C-alpha cells in the first residue's frame, strides 16, 4: 500500500468510526468492538476483549514484542458525548467531509486519536519496523461519564497488571495556535454539596437565621475564592510566568435547589459547587471549606450539612523533571519534527488519572494545532491535514518510544 492510499484508508477508518453511534447515555459499543476486531485483523494485531464492569468491556489491540521491557499503552475512549442535532450544520454521525474538514461527534474527542494510533502502527508495519517494547492500544468505555465501569475498573484487573505498562499516552486538547499542548497532570475534581438548614415561617415575617442567609454567606465566600483565583490568573498574564487554567483552582456554582411555596420561608437550600483544584492545592482548599462550614455554623450549630457528593479525584502529576526513556523519546520526537510544545496541566479529568494513581507515567496529547477547541461542542471537526499529520507524529513517537 502506498502512502497516498494509506492516507485514504486512514480517513475512511476515521469516518467509519465516527459513524458508529457510541454516544452516551446508550453507546453502541458492540458495533465499535466489531469494527476494532476487524481493524486488528487488518493490521495483524492481537485482539482481546476485557470485561471491565457490568455490561461493559474494553478492547486491547496488541503489537507484541519478544522483549520483556515495559510496554507502552496508547489509551483512548470509545464513547462520545450527546449532541444537540439542531445546532449542527452537518449530521453529527455522518463523518461528512466539507472543505477539508472531517465533521462528527468524536472528531476531536477522541476518535481521531484512536484511529491515529492504529494508522501509525500501519505505517510502522509497512516499513517492517520491529518494536522493542510491546504496544497496547486500549479502547475503553464510559470515559465521558467518569469511567467507573471503564478505566477505573480496568486498572484493577490482573489483565492490566500482566500488560506490564511503563508509559501511557492519553488524550489532550486542541489548540488554536501552532503550539501543541502536552499534559503531564490533571486538576483534582472536588464536588461540594452544601445542605443549609434554617428557621421557617410565613414569607411576610422577619425571620432570623434562615437557610437563605446561610446560602448567601456560602455563595459569597465561595465566589470570593473564585475571584481571588481569577485575579491571580489575570495578573500573571503580563508577567514572566503566565498561569494557565490547570494552574489555578476554579469554582462554579452548578446547582441550586430549595423552596416549597412562594410565601413560605423554606427550611433548607441546597447548593452544589463544581470545584477543580490546582495540583498541590487540595489541602489549602479543603481547609478553606472546613473553615467556611465552621464560620457558617457559628451562629446556630449543626444547621449546616455538607456532603462531598462526587468522588474526590485527587490530582496526580507525572514527573517531567526526572530523566526517563519515555520523556527523552517524546522530547526528541518533538524536536525532530520541529513541534512547538507547551507542557501543562489538563484543566479537567481524563482516564489517565487512574493510571497515574498506580504510579504509571501518563502524558495527555492530542496532536491538534491550528484547530479551535470543539470537544463537546456543535460542529465538532478536525481538518484532514491536521488528522494526517497527527498520524505522522504518532508514527515517529511510537517508533522512538519502542526503539529500545
Ligand atoms: Zn475525551
Automatic annotation (TrEMBL):
Alphabetical list of InterPro entries matching this protein: Aminoacylase-1_M20A (IPR052083), ArgE/DapE_CS (IPR001261), Bact_exopeptidase_dim_dom (IPR036264), N-acyl_aa_amidohydrolase (IPR010159), Peptidase_M20 (IPR002933), Peptidase_M20_dimer (IPR011650)
Catalytic machinery residues: 79, 143
Family (UniProt): Belongs to the peptidase M20A family.
Major localization listed first in the record, in broad terms: cytoplasm
PROSITE patterns according to UniProt: ARGE_DAPE_CPG2_1
Gene Ontology terms describing biological process: amino acid metabolic process
Alphabetized Pfam families for the sequence: M20_dimer, Peptidase_M20
Signal peptide interval: none
Domain Peptidase M20 dimerisation: 184-284
Protein name listed in UniProt: N-acyl-aliphatic-L-amino acid amidohydrolase
The enzyme's E.C. designation: 3.5.1.14
Cellular compartment(s): Cytoplasm
Coiled coil: none
Enzyme class: hydrolase
Cofactor: binding details: Binds 2 Zn(2+) ions per subunit.
Keywords from the UniProt entry: Cytoplasm, Hydrolase, Metal-binding, Zinc
Cofactor needs: Zn(2+)
Binding site for Zn(2+) 2: 109, 144, 376
Positions of Zn(2+) 1 binding: 77, 109, 171
Any one GO molecular function term: aminoacylase activity
